[in-house]
Write a structure and sequence with these properties.
Rossmann fold; four-stranded mixed β-sheet; 11 helices; elongated
């Protein structure tokens, strides 16, 4: 009966979850025009694959290596100049700047050799005091240079980071701008791609690691997991072969089957999850169309009927974990949002209940 009727309704939207880079526990839900979710997922997959190749090539190029070497040389020259001037000043005063395992040391010189402490203590008192005064002056200048070294190192790091950002932007902007052109009609996607661009700039090192040796395969798997943060989790996708209005019949209306679930994987003995493990339920698939449920089966589930009423009243689909719902686990989970303005009506015939939730608006 539902398939045979013509329903004056817009085609339901696609929905995806993407990483929230500010708070990974609260992934971002994005609404797309029908049939565009798969395209976004494939586009982001292509962006990551391209960056895996392009970024290492850029950082291994002769141009980058030459510019990096110039920054290093500039930093080393600045230190060398400061110590050279101090060394020349010490030589004019018959002193020497010595490097020891404990740091730098200024010592008096006679006949081109540093004077041992025993010999220095045997000097006439006037000569010794004059030498100590000179050493004190040079030591003060040495301390100033040593205090400046961390500042120079910070400047060195800042210049290297700026070079890395400029180098990475060549590949990042090319790929992100191409992705934006494909989804220029979806403002939420453009905003998301801008956040991806900023995060890629800050985490370029994820693409530059080169695991080697016996543990290379393990490190390679870890690297793959780290870049999963840029992938797209397709929650609902309307393909061309689907009917214009989704008709979903849920034969086993458990809470997870109705509202979706958050899955977990074991890593190093702990259960962890991320936005890619959020799975949609029948309510997500039926949104904008029809959901058919057997009333007896629905009422026999301890949490499904109250959850369904909450969704219809609050006009919101919220993924709920049964284990956390009854307090059986304290594992850190996600809070994925999925909002709706459900102005639904329902009709019941016998044991079959039909709900009519309209499309979720922006």
């Amino acid at each position: 009966m539902l398939r045979g009727e013509r329903w004056d309704r817009p085609a339901p939207s696609d929905w995806v979850y993407v990483n929230n880079f500010d708070d990974s526990r609260r992934p971002t839900a994005i609404q797309l025009p029908p049939g565009r979710a798969i395209a976004l997922r494939d586009t982001m997959q292509q962006v990551i694959e391209d960056l895996r190749i392009a970024l290492p090539a850029l950082f291994e190029s002769e141009d980058y290596q030459a510019r990096h070497a110039a920054i290093d040389q500039k930093f080393q020259a600045k230190q060398c100049e400061a110590f050279t001037k101090l060394n020349e000043k010490a030589a004019d005063a018959n002193m020497a700047l010595l490097r020891t395992p404990m740091g730098f040391l200024i010592a008096p010189v006679r006949d081109g050799k540093a004077v041992p402490p025993d010999e220095f203590n045997a000097w006439p008192e006037d000569d010794r005091r004059a030498a100590e005064k000179t050493i004190e002056t040079l030591q003060s200048e040495l301390e100033q240079i040593v205090r400046q070294i961390p500042l120079w190192e910070r400047e060195h790091r800042d210049e290297v980071q700026q070079l890395d950002r400029q180098t990475a932007l060549v590949a990042i902007d090319q790929n992100i701008n191409e992705a934006k052109r494909r989804f220029s009609d979806v403002s939420q996607v453009e905003k998301y791609l801008s956040t991806v661009r900023a995060d890629l700039i800050d985490n370029t090192a994820l693409f530059l690691a080169k695991p080697q040796g016996e543990l290379g395969a393990i490190f390679g798997a870890v690297l793959t997991n780290t870049v999963d943060r840029y992938h797209v989790n397709v929650l609902v996708s309307q393909s061309a072969k689907d009917s214009p209005i989704p008709i979903v019949r849920e034969l086993h209306p458990t809470l997870a089957n109705l509202v979706g679930s958050v899955e977990y994987v074991s890593q190093h003995g702990a259960l962890v999850t991320n936005f890619r493990l959020v799975k949609g339920g029948a309510m997500h698939r039926a949104n904008g169309g029809f959901l058919l449920l057997d009333a007896r089966h629905l009422l026999s589930e301890p949490f499904s009927w109250p959850a369904l009423k909450r969704m219809l009243r609050q006009r919101e689909i919220r993924v709920e974990d049964v284990a956390r719902f009854v307090g059986l686990t304290s594992t850190v989970s996600l809070e994925p949002p999925f909002h709706s303005t459900l102005k639904s009506s329902s009709s019941a015939t016998g044991c079959c209940t039909t709900f009519f939730p309209p499309t979720i608006p922006k």
